[in-house]
Design a protein that fits this description.
Blueprint (H helix, E strand, L loop, with lengths): L2 E13 L5 E13 L3 E5 L6 H8 L7 E6 L2 E2 L5 H11 E5 L10 H12 L4 H14 L15 H13 L5 E5 L7 H18 L3 E4 L3 H6 L2 E6 L2 E4 L5
Parallel strand pairs: 3-8, 3-9, 6-7, 7-8
Antiparallel strand pairs: 1-2, 1-4, 4-5, 9-10
Helix pairs in contact: 3-4, 3-5, 5-6
Length: 231
């Protein structure tokens, strides 16, 4: 299978004083294949968010390499990393991170404006069918402050999907939702993975999410203790 992302012996060190080295990630190697749905699990401080930040080009490893869709992103500068994020990676956050003064439509459209190369009509032709497929077309002109948590997360998922990225990263996507809404979001992401072949990498403490995901990678103290692969 072709890899959507590949990490080779990546480490991330932080220093608290000259002799106090903290290894948030310690020589982690991981392959996420295209079309795969994978969750990263582990206690607080195990390195889950740091790993997603490395793969999401939000931070760079102290050592090791990260490939996204065949591109070695480890040594790229800030502008180059920004370009990779805008073209190849979709993000879903636990706090949604929607722009409060934008409508649902405008929040999703904004991802395409950042990507560039489209007219307003072309963007509209992508955004509206996507909102409809996620059951939130009637929210197109509503701002986040007038939506429920589940509705906001569906808008955030639409924003991640609309640019058709290589990989979608979801950091604790159900953390701020009640159990019923959490399950609907989990089921939605699984459906998108199965029907559309979208590659997901999620981090979570949520037992419902972890139980539902086909592959679970387990981290402890910055190391992978189980890569979730059979055999």
């Amino acid at each position: 299978m072709e890899a959507a992302t590949f990490c080779d012996n990546i480490s991330r060190y932080f220093f608290a004083g000259e002799e106090n080295e903290v290894r948030a990630l310690d020589e982690v190697s991981l392959t996420i294949n295209k079309g795969e749905m994978t969750a990263v699990a582990g206690p607080s401080g195990s390195g889950k968010s740091t790993l997603l930040n490395m793969i999401g080009c939000l931070d760079t490893p102290t050592a090791g390499k990260v490939w996204i869709d065949g591109v070695d992103v480890s040594g790229l500068n800030r502008n180059e990393l920004s370009y990779i994020r805008s073209q190849k990676i979709g993000f879903i956050f636990q706090s949604f991170h929607l722009i409060p003064v934008f409508t649902a439509f405008e929040n999703v459209e904004f991802a395409l404006q950042i990507k560039g190369g489209m007219s307003h009509q072309e963007r509209k032709d992508l955004v509206m069918p996507l909102l409809d497929s996620l059951g939130i077309a009637d929210l197109a002109h509503r701002r986040p402050g007038h939506m429920s948590g589940g509705q906001q997360q569906r808008v955030a998922i639409a924003r991640a999907l609309v640019k058709k990225p290589t990989l979608i990263l979801a950091d604790e996507p159900t953390a701020n939702l009640d159990s019923k809404t959490s399950m609907s979001i989990i089921e939605l992401m699984i459906e998108l993975n199965q029907k559309e072949g979208i590659t997901f990498l999620l981090s979570s403490h949520d037992p419902m999410l972890i139980e539902a995901i086909p592959r679970v990678v387990r981290l402890l103290d910055g190391k992978i203790i189980d890569d979730g692969q059979e055999g």
